[in-house]
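Our preliminary data section would be incomplete without showing what the modeling component actually yields. Below, a chain of 145 amino acids is followed by its predicted structure, encoded as tokens that our downstream tools consume directly.
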Amino acid sequence: MNAAVNDRLKAAAKDNRVRAAVLGIAALIVIGVAAVIVHATLIDTKELRYQTQAELLNSTPATAGAELRARGVALGTALSCAHMPGWSKAKMRVSCTATTTDKKDVRVLASGEQAKREHYYTILVDGRPIVQNAHCLGEDCQRQG
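Predicted structure:
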């Protein structure tokens, strides 16, 4: 009879260990999900530098001009920027054009994605990229630090 009681006690102890392990894993999953939610809602404070299409349009000539000067590209004409077709509040798009002092075409493409909270910049000189999908240009890169 002692053997039967002993077997039942061992089985009950094993069941309790299994339950404890399952509860522990479930608790870790709940804590992980809660941590992700807290990070996404409270800690992730990344924002667009330029919140509107107008702000992006107005800032791009200065930031792109500074980036070009820093890379040794001298402009013969000022950057002329305009809204790109298909822009929206969620997906801002700006395009700028100019000419270098040695008559090469310059094109700047700037965008802002509200969902990703990111800006992307590409600069082409004579059809060749000198900046590709950068997240900042000119002095904006120092402000990020």
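The mean pLDDT is 85. The chain has three helices and five strands. Preliminary results of this kind motivate Aim 1 of the renewal.
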